[in-house]
TrEMBL record:
Biological source species: Caballeronia pedi
SUPFAM superfamilies, per database record: 2-methylcitrate dehydratase PrpD (SSF103378)
GO terms for MF: lyase activity
Domain of life: Bacteria
Family matches, as Pfam families: MmgE_PrpD_C, MmgE_PrpD_N
Protein name: MmgE/PrpD
Length: 494
């Protein structure tokens, strides 16, 4: 009988671009554009600057592009910096196993595409395949929380997002490196054995967040690139890492596994079609109450100075202390604060890097609004089993009660803006482009400095036609946009 490991490895390296349905190709382009935008938006953040300085310290052969930097670096170093940048603002896409891995999927594939001079079709194929591998590993291990009688009773003792981030990078890297099935099997063993420690429980209990949060997406991307390169050179790993009593799910801390979810519809049910996009740069669990909040602000033309109190009704995942923190002390912690997100939205702060700039974090109006936000449980999301299928969630209700004008305005969102499962919430191509523009310094209407506006439009157009172009066109356009952004930043500082 063919093992789980070998079956998934075979799929990873035998699938070709021509095997991808048109909808999958289109979604892959959308994910690529969104992820690049998230990385560019983080270049001038403290965490982003550290990533770029770290890569400069490492040096290395100039094989791959580093987002926001005039210097190229090695494939491993570039994958590290770019994937970390893409996750810094917590604005990157989220798959419904409670994790992000578009970051490492995209940038491990791009680094090796540059190293090996692959085509745009090759890059898109690697992203789609790698994303599927990460999604299936996450669905196989299930949600990282303890569920009893359908209700969440706590986080797992072990487990966490790092596993799926690393596996997505492993899959993308094995594909773009053109490993054979034997080499891919070994790459799986190498990468899976060296995945980061599971720290989700520590993250959930910490109000003040480290810069890498629950996992450094950069290291996960670097693991993927390294595992593929090592396997291609002949290094070996466990060839049965997904099989048997001591399979990956067990030593990584998952309380169970679902082999059907791992392989069901392999090559037919493409998981990239289930990813969710973020209109706001904060934890996805905050987006359900935020969606309800945005609806009420718009429907009733509510001004922030009219709002005397907001009660957030959150799902079970978003009730730990970090989500209840009213006055987060740093940008990374603010990404998980309901209060900060609602305050930034209420005051119409552009949903990108500006949410976490010092001027916003220290704004007296923002601080005062945060004090008026409290968090309680959303009753309709208590039975999490109702919202789960195949190890994935399909919407988890969250809502708000806004006290203003002597009345209470209430709304609940079963699905958040950016969810692909309803026509009302699915992000359009125009929304993806608009978000990309905001991330690189334009406003929601696409207005801003002419050089950035032109370079951003060119990059977006290239991404959306990448299946007919070489990867060099993408990286040249990315470099041009990075230069335009650096020039604008220098003008503002002078």
């Amino acid at each position: 009988m063919t093992s789980l490991t070998q079956t998934l490895a075979d799929f990873t390296v035998q699938t070709r671009f021509d095997d991808l349905p048109e909808a999958v190709v289109h979604e892959t382009k959308r994910l690529l554009l969104d992820t690049i935008g998230c990385a560019l938006g983080a270049v001038d953040t403290p965490s982003g600057r550290i990533a770029l300085e770290y890569v400069n310290t490492l040096g290395g052969a100039p094989h791959a592009s580093v987002v926001g930097s005039p210097r190229r670096s090695s494939a491993t170093a570039a994958a590290y910096a770019n994937a970390r940048l893409a996750n810094v603002l917590d604005a990157d896409d989220t798959f419904p196993t409670s994790t992000h891995f578009g970051n490492a999927t995209v940038f491990s594939a791009l680094a090796l595409a540059e190293l090996d001079r692959r085509s745009g079709r090759d890059l898109l194929g690697a992203i789609a395949v790698g994303f599927d591998v990460g999604a299936r590993i996450g669905s196989w291990m299930g949600a990282p929380m303890q569920i009893e009688n359908g209700e969440v009773i706590g986080w797992n003792e072990l487990g966490g997002p790092a596993a799926t981030i690393a596996w997505a990078a492993i899959g993308a890297s094995a594909h773009i490196a053109r490993l054979d099935t034997r080499q891919a099997n070994h790459a799986f063993g190498i990468g899976g054995s060296n995945s980061p420690q599971p720290t989700l429980r520590k993250w959930a209990e910490s109000v003040e967040q480290p810069m890498y949060k629950y996992a450094d997406a950069g290291w996960c991307a670097e693991i993927g690139v390294s595992s593929a390169l090592l396997a291609r050179l002949g290094s070996t790993g466990f060839t049965d890492i997904l099989d048997g009593d001591n399979a990956f799910w067990k030593f990584y801390g998952s309380p169970g596994h679902d082999d059907h979810a791992l392989l069901a519809g392999l090559g037919e049910d493409w998981q990239i079609l289930n990813t969710t996009y973020k209109p706001w740069p904060c934890c996805r669990w905050i987006h359900h109450p935020l969606s309800a909040f945005a609806q009420l602000l718009d429907r009733h033309a509510l001004r922030p100075d009219e709002i005397t109190r907001v009660v957030v009704r959150a799902n079970p995942f978003a009730l730990t202390p970090i989500f209840r923190e009213q006055q987060p002390r740093d940008p990374l912690s603010a990404e998980f604060s309901h209060a900060h997100a609602l305050a930034a939205l209420a005051y119409a702060i552009a949903p990108g890097p500006r949410w976490y700039e010092a001027a916003t974090m220290n704004d007296a109006r923002i601080a005062a609004f945060r004090e008026r936000v409290t968090v309680t449980a959303e009753p309709s999301s208590s039975n999490i089993a109702e919202w789960m299928t195949g190890g994935q969630w399909r919407g988890v209700p969250g809502g708000v009660d806004i006290h203003a004008r002597g009345a209470v305005f209430s709304a609940t969102a079963d699905h958040a803006s950016g969810d692909p499962w309803t026509s009302a919430t699915r992000f359009s191509d125009a929304q993806i482009r608009s978000k990309f523009g905001v991330m690189v310094g334009l406003d929601a209407a696409g207005d801003g400095p002419r050089e950035i506006r032109h370079a951003a439009r060119e990059l977006a157009d290239i991404v959306m036609s990448l299946d007919a172009l070489p990867v060099e066109r993408l990286t040249a356009s990315l470099d041009a946009l990075s230069r335009a952004m650096r020039t604008q930043s220098e003008k503002q500082e002078s």
